[in-house]
Amino acid sequence: MFGYHYRLERNAIGLVLAIVVAASIGGFVEIAPLFTIDETVEDVPDMRVYTPLELAGRNIYIREGCYACHSQMIRTLRDEVERYGPYSLAVESKYDHPMLWGSKRTGPDLARVGGKYSDEWHVAHLINPRDVVPPSNMPAYAWLQRTPLEVKDLGLHLKALRQVGVPYTDDMIANAAADARNQAMPDDGGAGGLTQRYGEATQIRAFDGNPANVTELDALVAYLQILGRLTDAAYKPAAEGG
Amino acid sequence: MVSQLTMNERRWAMGILIALSLIGLTMLGAGRGDAFGVHGAIVAAAAIAMIFVVISGYFAPEPGEERLTRYYDDPSKAGIVISMVWAMLGLFVGDWVAWLLAYPNLTFDAPWSSLGRIRPVHTTSIIFGFGGNALIATSFHVLQRTTRARLPDQLSPWFVLLGYNLFCVIAVTGYLMGVTQSKEYAEAEWYADIWLVVVWVTYFAIYLRTLARRKEPHIYVANWYYMAFILAVAMLHIVNNLAVPISLGHAKSYSLFSGVQDAMTQWWYGHNAVAFFLTAGFLGMLYYYLPKRAGRPIFSYRLSIISFWGITFIYMWAGSHHLHYTALPQWVQTLGMTFSVMLLVPSWASAGNALMTLNGAWHKVRDDATLRFMMVAAIFYGLSTFEGSFMAIRPVNALSHYTDWTIGHVHAGAMGWVALITFGSIYAVVPWLWKREAMYSARLIELHFWLALSGTLIYVFAMWNSGITQGLMWRTYNESGTLAYSFVDSLVAMYPYYIARAIGGLLFFLGAIVGFYNIWMTIRTAPAEARASEPDAPALSGARVQPGE
Ligand code: HEM
Ligand code: HEM
C-alpha cells in the first residue's frame, strides 16, 4: 500500500484524480438520494407559498442577518416541542430558497412565532427590543420603519423563484407589486385579487400600524406573523414521519 | 512589481485590466439603484487603479533571464502583508460583535453597523481575508521550495492574489449594504461567486504547471494538502452557490435548493469549508513550516499518508452532524455521526505526527516563541477535533447545538489552531522572504504568543461555560413537570460570559497588533541591497524538508 502511494505521489494528475474521487463519494451518497426519495419531504396539500409582501419581509430577515441569532428549526426533542411548539417538518421549508434553519440561538427559535404576539408588540420590539424585554441583547431596527419598501422588482423575485421550483402563477407574478401594496394598505381600495391568489386566510392589514404607506417594517412583521402558519401539517398527528 | 513582469505579461495585464474595468462599468450601468451597481463601481475603480500601476512601470526594462534561476516571491510577500491587514479588520470586528452581544447599544443607528451585518464581516475577513491570503502566500512559497521549481510565470500569481482580494472586498462591502445569500461562510452573491471560480481555476493551474516543471520527483506532503484544499473548495463552492439571480442587473439571487436539500447541501459545504479551508490548507502550512523551523524531518511518513487520505475521504460524510434531530432523514444523521467519530483517527494522527516531530527539539520550543505558536496550534487542533467528534454524537449535540458551546468549539479551532499556526508560519517565513537573520524583535513574538494564548483560553472557557449553562437551562424541568426557565432567564445568565469573551478577544486582537508591528518593522529594516544581491537560487534554498521515515 505504501509502495503504491510512493508511486502515486510522483504523478500529479493521478494524485489530483485520487483526491477528487475520495472527496466526492461522501457528499454524493448523502445528498443525491434526498432529491429522489419521496419520503424526504411530506406531501401536504394545504402548503401555500409566500405572498410578495411576506417574501419581501423574508428577504429583509436575510439581509439583516436575523438568522445569525434565531433558528427556524424545532428539533424532535421534548423540551423544544414544549417551548416552541410541534417539531418542524421538512415540508414547512419546502419553498424556502434558501432555508433559514439557523445554527445558533442567541435569541429564541422563530419557526412558530407567527400569531404568538400582536403586530404592535413586534413593531415596538423591532424598533427597540429593550423597551419590551429589558434584558434583551437583540439589535434595534429602528430604520425599518423609516424605509419605504421597494416593491417594483417583486415580480422578478417571484419569477426567479418559479425557475427554482416554487409554484408561482403568471397571475401572481404580474400582480406582485400591487399585491404587496394591497396587503399592507387595506384602506387603499381593497385587497384586489390577493385573497384569490394566496387564499382566504391571507392576513391583510397595516402591519406597522400606519396604513398610509408600505415600509420595510410592514414586510418584516407580515413575514414574522406567517412563520409556522403556511400549513397545519405539523399539528396533525397523521403528518408524522418523513 | 510591474518591473518583474515581461513585456508580454505587461500586455496581458493591461488586457485583463481593461476587460475587468469594462465589466465593472457594465455592472455599474446595469445595476443602477442596486448594490450591484455599487459593486460595479468598486470593480471598475480597482481595475482602473491597477491600470495606472501597470502603466507606471510599463516602460521599465524587462527582467533578465537570470530571474529564472530564482524563486518568485513577490506575490507571497504581498500576500502576507495583505493577510495581516485583513486580520486587523476581522479581529476588530469580531471583538466589536462580542461587545455588542454584551452591550447591544454600542453601535450606530445605521443599518450597516447592525450585528447581523457585521457578523459575516468578521467571519469572512478572518477566514477568507486573513486565512485565505496566508494560504495563498504560503502555498506559493512552499510549492516552489518543495518542487525546486519557480512559479510558471510572473502574472498569474498576481492575478490569483489580487483577484482573490477583489472577491473578499466585494463580499465584505456587500454585507454592509445588505447583500447576502445567508448561507454561512458562502454569503457572497452570485457574481462574486462566479469571479471566485475564475480566480480559483487559475490558482489550481499554477499548481499543476509548477508541479509539471518540478525537479523533485516526489510531491511533498504539504502540497497534497494544499491541492486538496484547492480542489475540494472548488467543488464545494460551485455546488453550494448554485442560484438563479432575479436579473442580470441585481445582486439578489435565489438558491437552487430549498428546505432539507438546501440544509444538507449547505452543511456539506459548511463542514467541509472547515475541513478543506480551515484544516487541510493549514495542515499544508504545518507540514512545511513546523519541521523546517524545528530542523527535524516529519516524524512519520506513513502516518501522513493515513491522515491525509482519512481526512480527504471521511470529512465529506460528516456534514449532517450540523442537522441532528432536524427534519433531515435520520439515516443521513446517523451516517454523519458515525463518520464524525471516525474522523478523530486521522485528525489525531496529524496532530500526533506534528507533536512527535518536535520530539528532540523541545528545548527549541522552550526558547523559540515561533515554534511554540506552531506547537500550541497542533495541540488546539487535537483538542478541537476531539471536541468536534464528541459534539457530533447525537445526545451530546442535543445539548450543544444552538448554544455557545458551538461558538467555543469554533474558536478553539479558529483562534487556537488556524490563527496560531498562521502566526507561527508567518513569523517563520517573513525573515526568509525578506532575507533577514530573524524577526525584528523576539520579545514581541513572545508577547504576542502570551496575549494570543491567554485570549484564546479566556474566550474558549467562557463559551464552554455559557454554552453548557444555556443548554442545561433550556432543558431543565421543575417538580411540576414544566420547563423551569424562560428563554430570557437563560439570556440573563449569559452576560458575564459574554463580557469575559469580549475581554479575551481584546487580548487576542492586541496580540495581533503587536504581531503586525513586528512584521512591519522587520520588513522596513530589511537590508535593501540584500534583496538585489543575494540570489535565492533553488539550490540555495537550504535544508529541504525530507519526508522522514
Ligand atoms: C479577537 C478574536 C475573536 C473574537 C472576539 C471573535 C468573536 C466572535 C463572535 C462574537 C462571534 C459571534 C458568536 C455568536 O454569534 O454568538 C464569532 C463568530 C465566528 N468567528 Fe470569531 N472571533 C475572534 C476570532 C476569530 C478567528 C481568528 C476566527 C477564524 C479563523 C473566527 C471565526 C469565527 C467563525 C467561523 C464564527 C461563526 C461561528 C458560528 O456561526 O457558529 N473568529 N466570533
Ligand atoms: C474531527 C473534526 C471535527 C468534528 C467532528 C467537528 C464537529 C463539529 C460539530 C458537531 C459542530 C456543531 C454543529 C452544530 O451543532 O451546529 C461543529 C461546528 C463547527 N466547527 Fe467543528 N468539528 C471538527 C473540527 C473543527 C475544526 C478543526 C474547526 C476549525 C476551525 C472547526 C470549526 C467549526 C465551525 C466553524 C463550526 C460552526 C459551524 C456553524 O454552526 O456555523 N471544527 N463542528
How are the SSEs placed, and which strands pair?
The complex is a heterodimer of chains A (242) and B (549).
Chain A: H1 2-8, H2 12-36, H3 52-63, H4 78-84, H5 119-127, H6 129-132, H7 143-146, H8 154-163, H9 170-174, H10 176-184, H11 194-198, H12 216-226
Helix pairs in contact in A: 3-10, 3-12
Chain B: H1 7-30, H2 35-58, H3 74-102, H4 115-147, H5 155-177, H6 190-212, H7 221-240, E1 243-245, E2 253-255, H8 259-294, H9 301-314, H10 330-342, H11 344-357, H12 362-367, H13 369-391, H14 394-400, H15 404-433, H16 442-475, H17 487-524, H18 528-533
Antiparallel strand pairs in B: 1-2
In short, what is this structure?
The complex is a heterodimer of chains A (242) and B (549). With 242 residues, chain A is an all-alpha fold. Chain A has 2 domains: 2-40; 52-230, Cytochrome c-like domain (Cytochrome Bc1 Complex, Chain D, domain 2, Orthogonal Bundle), CATH 1.10.760.
What would you note in describing this structure?
Chain A is mostly helical and 242 residues long. Chain A has two domains: 2-40; 52-230, Orthogonal Bundle (Cytochrome Bc1 Complex, Chain D, domain 2). In chain A, 45% of the residues lie in helices and 0% in strands. In chain A, helix 3 packs across helix 10 (176-184) and helix 3 packs across helix 12. Chain A is globular. Chain A starts with a helix and ends in a 16-residue tail after the last helix. The model of chain A has no long low-confidence stretch (mean pLDDT 92). Chain B is mainly alpha-helical. Chain B folds into two domains: 1-61; 72-524, Cytochrome c oxidase-like, subunit I domain (Cytochrome C Oxidase, Chain A). In chain B, 72% of the residues lie in helices and 1% in strands. A two-stranded antiparallel sheet of chain B has the order 1-2. The longest helix of chain B has 38 residues, at 487-524. Chain B is globular. The two termini of chain B are 41 Å apart. The relative contact order of chain B is 0.09. Classes of the chains: A mainly alpha (242), B mainly alpha (549). Chains A and B meet through helix 1, helix 2, helix 3, helix 4 and helix 8 of A and helix 3, helix 4, helix 6, helix 7 and strand 1 of B. The complex binds protoporphyrin IX containing FE (HEM) (2 copies). One protoporphyrin IX containing FE sits between chains B (91, 94-95, 97-98, 101, 119, 122-123, 126-127, 131, 184, 406-407, 410-411, 414-415, 418-419, 505, 508-509) and A (68, 103-104, 106). Residues 184, 270, 274, 278-279, 318, 321-322, 340, 343-344, 347, 384-385, 388-389, 391-392, 397, 400-401, 406, 409-410, 413-414, 417-418 of chain B line the site of one protoporphyrin IX containing FE.
